[in-house]
Amino acid sequence: MNRRLLWKLCGILALGTSALFWVISFVGSETERQMSFIAEPHQQTLRDWGRTAEAMYRAGDEQALARWLEDLQTRENTWAAVVRSDIQPLVGSRLTDRFRDGFRLGRDETWKIHLYFTENPIMETTFADGKTHFLVLLPQRMRPGTYLPEVRILLKVALPLAVLVMMCLVIYRHVMNPLRQLELATRQFTEGNLGVRVRTLLGNRNDELAALADTFDQMAERTGDLILTQRRLIADLSHELRTPLTRIDMAVSCVEEGIDTQHFLPRIRHECRIMRGLVEDTLTLAWLENEKPSLDHESLDLTDLLDSILDDARYEYPDHHLQVHLPDRAELTGSSHRALAQAIENVIRNACNHTPAGGTITISLRREENGYRLVVDDEGPGVPPEHLELIFKPFFRSSVARDEKPTGHGLGLALARRQMEAAGGWIKAGNRGEGGLRMLLWFPLPNPGPHS
């Protein structure tokens, strides 16, 4: 089963989850790094303090420097001092150049501050002589990371929520866009737009929702065809019924006026038979078109079936010659006796109707590899090549057919094709080179099972 949508959603969730952890990690570390540095105005204040202390120290006014340090400590509630870095080695120890160059009493104001240490660091400003230093314990007001707890809450709650909302929006759009197209198409279809389709609107998408769109299109096409077929059948049937109804109305009027009652009563009965046959054939055709029925699977002998139909044809058309070529037996299983009998009877009756009196209708049945082929040739006027498929449409009649048999309704061959298709076969028409129409009927043999 196609599970492309499942894998797409799993991929989106996997990528979204990975992106979520990466964003939280990156943004968290970057935010913490940025918050670990003393603000630039505070860095400038520390440098100013260092320069002030150095100026007083170089002026040699130790009392003024002491008062200034005392005032600074009181004002900032911190500790501050001026110290020297002369370190004397003991017991023969020797200080390396690397130690002398790298030794620091405190931190430079540009250094990173560890936010997780509760104690504030000591900041250092080195005087010009390189041996004297101004030290101050970083005042609390200058400590970076004041809003770190709030930022950490945002990183742990707001940021994951934002990423998850974005993932939900991506999934929602991916799922809802085709569903909206399907909803719009369904609404248009219910409003009468039978040609609306969805699959082409989804582009190259190939997942469960695309399969749903394909199913909808198939349903829409099938339902649209049924609706159009019903409309056409109703319109054609109403048109065909007008003529016998008009004749009956005229005959009834004559009977009511007492004009030749014995002549018009048989005419009324005849028109009623025509109307009944027309309605029954139309209903049968509508059933075959709409329901696509699976007919009863029966075993029959095509030779016997044809013999019975041909006996009726000889009785109905005594002035026609029937030339018949049938095998002794033509066993057929898994088919429908009723459907095939009606189809063959309609084809042979059509051939007889269009063959002039004294003409010959040739019927031949032969076995082929996968079934039986029935050929019915008549000596009628044939059919224009552009009408060879149209003659199987309900109520279609060529101008020649209307002139030869004005009482026909054009349902016989349409019923024959639907009945053959319902029984698993097919029917085709073609013109003979010497004149007349040739009807080909194919009756397939069922495929043998693996153990038959």
TrEMBL record:
<keyword id="KW-0597">Phosphoprotein</keyword>
<keyword id="KW-1133">Transmembrane helix</keyword>
<dbReference type="Pfam" id="PF00512">
    <property type="entry name" value="HisKA"/>
</dbReference>
<keyword id="KW-1003">Cell membrane</keyword>
<dbReference type="Pfam" id="PF00672">
    <property type="entry name" value="HAMP"/>
</dbReference>
<protein>
    <recommendedName>
        <fullName>histidine kinase</fullName>
        <ecNumber>2.7.13.3</ecNumber>
    </recommendedName>
</protein>
<dbReference type="InterPro" id="IPR003661">
    <property type="entry name" value="HisK_dim/P_dom"/>
</dbReference>
<keyword id="KW-0472">Membrane</keyword>
<feature type="domain" description="Histidine kinase">
    <location>
        <begin position="236"/>
        <end position="447"/>
    </location>
</feature>
<keyword id="KW-0812">Transmembrane</keyword>
<dbReference type="InterPro" id="IPR003594">
    <property type="entry name" value="HATPase_dom"/>
</dbReference>
<keyword id="KW-0067">ATP-binding</keyword>
<dbReference type="InterPro" id="IPR003660">
    <property type="entry name" value="HAMP_dom"/>
</dbReference>
<dbReference type="Pfam" id="PF16750">
    <property type="entry name" value="HK_sensor"/>
</dbReference>
<feature type="domain" description="HAMP">
    <location>
        <begin position="173"/>
        <end position="228"/>
    </location>
</feature>
<dbReference type="InterPro" id="IPR038428">
    <property type="entry name" value="HK_sensor_dom_sf"/>
</dbReference>
<keyword id="KW-0547">Nucleotide-binding</keyword>
<dbReference type="InterPro" id="IPR036097">
    <property type="entry name" value="HisK_dim/P_sf"/>
</dbReference>
<dbReference type="InterPro" id="IPR004358">
    <property type="entry name" value="Sig_transdc_His_kin-like_C"/>
</dbReference>
<dbReference type="InterPro" id="IPR005467">
    <property type="entry name" value="His_kinase_dom"/>
</dbReference>
<dbReference type="InterPro" id="IPR036890">
    <property type="entry name" value="HATPase_C_sf"/>
</dbReference>
<keyword id="KW-0808">Transferase</keyword>
<dbReference type="GO" id="GO:0016301">
    <property type="term" value="F:kinase activity"/>
</dbReference>
<keyword id="KW-0418">Kinase</keyword>
<dbReference type="Pfam" id="PF02518">
    <property type="entry name" value="HATPase_c"/>
</dbReference>
<feature type="transmembrane region" description="Helical">
    <location>
        <begin position="6"/>
        <end position="27"/>
    </location>
</feature>
<dbReference type="InterPro" id="IPR050980">
    <property type="entry name" value="2C_sensor_his_kinase"/>
</dbReference>
<dbReference type="InterPro" id="IPR031930">
    <property type="entry name" value="HK_sensor"/>
</dbReference>
